[in-house]
Structure formats: C-alpha cells, structure tokens
Design brief:
The structure is a single chain. With 379 residues, the protein is an alpha+beta fold. It folds into 2 domains: 278 residues, Alpha-Beta Plaits (2-Layer Sandwich); 67 residues, no CATH class. The protein is 19% helix and 20% strand. It contains 10 helices and 19 strands. The strands form 8 sheets. A 4-stranded mixed beta sheet has the order 12-3-14-13. A hairpin with a 4-residue loop joins strand 18 and strand 19. The N and C termini lie far apart (64 Å). The structure holds iron/sulfur cluster (SF4) (2 copies). One iron/sulfur cluster binds next to helix 3. The site of one iron/sulfur cluster has 14 residues, from helix 3.
Length: 379
C-alpha cells in the first residue's frame, strides 16, 4: 500500500511507501559546483574515515564525477532516467513519474542493481569534455565543449528510496534526518541498492550487508561539520540543519540558500526522494542539461550566482563556505560589500567566526630588501 505525501521539490503530492513524516530538523549540505576542482580530497577524507576496511575497496561514499561522461557506478543516472519515462515539468510542478510511481508491475520502486564491475571505474570519464572541438573551430570564451565536476554523497533523502525498498525495515531516519542502515537487521538483500536512485547504498561482500554514508554523525552530534566539508580544498561545501520547506528561517544558512534565494537546488528532484544535498548549478553548462539535473529553477539560480557579487548577504554567505569546522546555525552580514563581514553563529547564538566579504589583496614589494631577492609572485 502506498501513501500520498507532499514533495515540495515537485510541488505536488506523490506516492510513497510510508506516510509523510518529516524530522524537526534535517541534515543538509550545499555544494557550489562552480568552485569544485575535482581534487578528490573529500573522497579520500571520507574513505580514510569510514571505508578503509576489507571489501570496502570499491566503496566510495563520497565521489566526484565529471559530467557529462563521468558516472559512479557506471551509468547510474542515465539508466534510471530511461526507466522513468518522460520527465515533464509544468512550471515548477513535476508532471512526470517518480521512482515510486514508475515502478514495474509487482514492484514498489523503479530501480536496478548495478553489476559489481559497474563500481570498478570510479574515475571513468574524469576531465572529459562534452565533445571534441570541431574542425575549423577555434577556442573562444565561452568554450563550446563543456564539463563540470559533480561531487556526490548520500542525500539523506526525506523519502529515501533505500528505506522504502528495504523489506527488513533495517533502514531508518533519525530525528535529525540522517538515514542509517541498522547492521544488525540488514540481511544483505540489496533492495536498498536497487531502490536508491543515486546508488549511494552499497553492498559489502565481507559482511553480506549494505552500508552507506552516515553523515559523520559522531561529528555532527558535537556540532562539527562532516569530513567531506571540513577537508574540502575548494571550500565549496557547507553543512547544516535545514528547516521545513514551509518554515524557512532567513538567518539559517541552508534555508537562505535553498528556500529564500533558491540558488541551491536538489539533484534530480524528479526521482522523488526529496534529496537534501543542494547544488549551486554550474554556470558554464547548457541550460537544458542543468535543468535535467537540477530542475526548472536552474537558469534562475545561474543568473543569481552570476550577479552574486552585487548582493552583500548572498556573497557574504558564500564566503562562509569552508571557513570553519563548526556547524553554523545562523548567520548575519554587517556592512557593505567592500568593507563588510559575514558572521556565523553556533546553536546558542554565540559568534563562531567572521569573514570579510571582500578578501583583502596584499601586493608585496617586488624586491625583498631583507633577503635581497626579487619576488616572482607579488600578490
Ligand atoms: S541517497 Fe540513496 S542511500 Fe541516501 S537516503 Fe537517499 S535513497 Fe537512501
Ligand atoms: S575536496 Fe572540494 S574541491 Fe576537492 S573534489 Fe571534493 S568537493 Fe571538489
């Protein structure tokens, strides 16, 4: 039996296995794709922390793939998109089918279990651009061939496919929205692997059970951001707790980016799981591709991002990304773009940090008189 639940990302009710039950607060991330350099430091930070054991070799809870040709596991998204059928949006309302509505006869969820070898090439397509530069073309700005880096973790979905698919009820969602697999209850049927549209629930041969990203809950319980956020070289990530879509708090950094500004968007909202990793879409990518990945709000988000430097609150908050290991529960901006600061606060309203909206530029003397040498880099 299925239940009608509201999915704000689709702007309509949809079918789900269980009744609607939203946590009071929801773990959530914002990733700015425009700043990711695919250094894979996040990938390694996660691996070292959680999946360095035997038979976890292929298990990358965090991966960064180059779109449009990168996939981990192979073809994870395009294979499901084909199974979903036409994905029509009418304005901001989704009129196609979700994975729960497009299930085959006798099934609850549309999905598939990737073959073992599909997990064997995590960097397939890395740094490959969309197409070759055509004969007679020359390199110009913007480049015709394009690509961008898509960092991916479990989305700790509001309507998790993994949870809906598990016949043992081994998958559960905590009060803070973290989705976990109870290793005692799991019997390794791989129904969560089949049902997760993002293929972020993974089977471990050694234990015969499935495992997935745990949102670094030992850290978040101590008000610290997750490993992938703390170690991100590009400072593209922000972790926090999101309020419900109908009660956004403009002082909450995640709410502000997702619900107030609508600059950070879910990945493949049409899957229907209401994922909670939100992406600032890449500005160098064709509109149609961005819309397929991030939904109908993608073009508006790109425009906002391009003009972010004129908006002191938005650009101030973007400067906060990667600036502290602590969870920022609220923020404020003081002053103007030239001289102002963005300030982050903890859960008690105490100031954690302040960052300048505009980073100071220091130009050093070309000649270092103390050491009597010329400097090559002066800025
Ligand atoms: S991304 Fe996949 S594994 Fe994570 S909560 Fe959603 S359905 Fe489950
Ligand atoms: S550490 Fe940050 S910049 Fe590097 S690949 Fe991961 S998300 Fe991208």
């Amino acid at each position: 039996m299925s239940h009608k639940v509201y999915n704000w990302q689709l702007n309509r009710k949809m079918d789900f296995i269980y009744p609607e039950s939203r946590p009071d607060k929801q773990v959530a991330w914002v990733f700015d794709t425009n700043k990711c350099i695919a250094c894979q430091t996040c990938t390694m930070a996660c691996k070292n922390a959680w999946t360095s054991g035997k038979s976890q070799e292929y298990m990358w809870w965090n991966n960064v793939e180059t779109k449009p040709w990168g996939f981990y596991p192979l073809g994870w998204d395009v294979r499901l998109l084909e199974k979903l059928g036409p994905q029509k949006w009418n304005g901001d309302k989704y009129e196609g089918k979700t994975i729960f509505e497009a299930a085959d006869y006798g099934e609850k969820i549309q999905g598939f279990v990737p073959a073992e070898e599909d997990f064997g090439h995590p960097n397939l397509g890395e740094d490959e651009v969309s197409e070759l530069v055509k004969q007679g073309q020359y390199i110009k700005i913007p480049h015709q061939p394009w690509m961008f880096y898509l960092p991916r973790i479990c989305n700790h979905c509001t309507y998790p496919g993994c949870l809906g698919g598990c016949p043992r009820k081994a998958v559960y969602k905590r009060k803070d929205g973290t989705v976990l697999i109870d290793q005692e209850r799991c019997r390794g049927y791989r129904e969560c692997v089949r049902a997760c549209p993002y293929k972020k629930s993974m089977f471990r041969n050694l234990t015969g059970k499935s495992e997935k990203c745990i949102a670094c809950y030992p850290a978040t319980e101590k008000d610290e951001q997750t490993q992938c956020v703390q170690n991100c070289i590009g400072k593209i990530r922000l972790f926090g707790f999101k309020n419900n879509w109908d009660k956004p708090d403009p002082k909450n950094p995640i709410d502000y980016l997702v619900h107030i500004k609508k600059i950070a968007l879910p990945l493949y909202p049409q899957f229907g799981t209401e994922p909670n990793v939100y992406y600032i879409p890449p500005i160098n990518v064709p509109e149609s591709f961005n819309k397929q990945l991030f939904g109908p709000g993608a073009s508006q988000a790109v425009e906002l991002y391009k003009n972010a430097a004129k908006d002191s609150t938005l650009v101030g908050l973007l400067m906060l990304f990667g600036s502290t290991g602590k969870i920022v529960h609220s923020f404020s901006v003081e002053g103007d773009i030239e001289t102002g600061h963005c300030i982050g606060y903890d859960s008690k309203g105490q100031e954690i940090l302040r960052v300048p909206i505009k980073e100071p530029i220091i130009i050093r003397e070309k000649h270092d008189t103390k050491r009597d040498v010329n400097r090559i880099s002066v800025t």
